[in-house]
Design a protein that fits this description.
The complex is a heterodimer of chains A (130) and B (80). Chain A is an alpha+beta fold and 130 residues long. Chain A folds into two domains: 91 residues, Alpha-Beta Plaits, CATH 3.30.70; 32 residues. Chain B has 80 residues and is mainly α. Chain B has a single domain, classed as 30s Ribosomal Protein S18, CATH 4.10.640. Chain B is 35% helix and 0% strand. Chain B starts with 15 loop residues before the first helix and ends in a 12-residue tail after the last helix. The chains are: A alpha+beta (130), B mainly alpha (80).
Chain lengths: 130, 80
């Protein structure tokens, strides 16, 4: 199963309880299908960069989840049918690249090495100026 | 770098994202992305911003995603 990020923009008119209900309607099928909800972020009410269905704001919910692939299409279908969803987007979450991990390790090593060596070049530079 | 007779001085462009050592550009980071769009909402070309190829393609993808989520405009209101 792959890791996905789904962002949903709900109608700003929905009250807190309705939003919680809607979030459950997203997370429950994931759990039922054998997936895993990694994280639910509530960005709250944000101003939209352009009007969607004549709304100026939207309530943003961001869900990170591991889901079986067929569920993604089904989720998409449900969002389309749901009148209170202004917009939704599901993308593959960025993988932890091996390069990033490698670079972090390298930077760590360079730091340990670089600290004693660092004053050297600075001194030579100052003598060169004189 | 400037040719004879040209009074304009040039400054070498560099990729700001490489400078900041950005590994990956996030489509949710609309504040960072907004530096790479014009006031009309267009994506700034590489020849203007000096961004490297790897980062430019990341910017393009991220801006397009952010537009879908209404984090960034497709176009600016005043020109609509």
């Amino acid at each position: 199963m792959k890791l996905y990020e789904t962002t949903i923009i709900y109608d700003p008119g929905l009250e807190e309880a309705r939003i919680n209900e809607e979030v459950d309607r997203v997370t429950q099928p994931i759990a039922q299908a054998g997936g895993e909800v990694v994280e639910v972020q509530r960005w709250g009410k944000k101003k939209l960069a352009y009007n969607i269905r004549k709304r100026r704001d939207g309530t943003y919910i961001h869900v990170k989840h591991k889901s079986p692939a067929p569920l993604i299409g089904e989720m998409d279908r449900r969002f389309r049918l749901n009148e209170s969803v202004l917009r939704h987007l599901t993308v593959l979450a960025p993988k932890e690249s091996p390069r990033a991990a490698e670079e972090a390790a390298k930077a760590e090593a360079a730091k340990a090495e670089g600290v004693p060596g660092a004053p050297g070049p600075v001194e030579t530079a100052s003598t060169a100026v004189d | 770098m400037a040719r004879d007779g040209e009074s304009r001085s040039y400054r070498r462009k560099f990729c700001k994202l490489c400078f900041d050592k950005v590994e990956r550009i996030d489509y949710k980071d609309d504040r960072r992305l907004s530096r790479f769009i014009t006031d009309r909402g267009k994506i700034v070309p590489r020849r203007i911003s000096g961004t490297c190829a790897r980062h430019q393609s990341q910017i393009t993808e991220a801006v397009k995603r952010a537009r879908i989520l209404a984090l960034l405009p497709f176009t600016s209101d005043q020109y609509r």
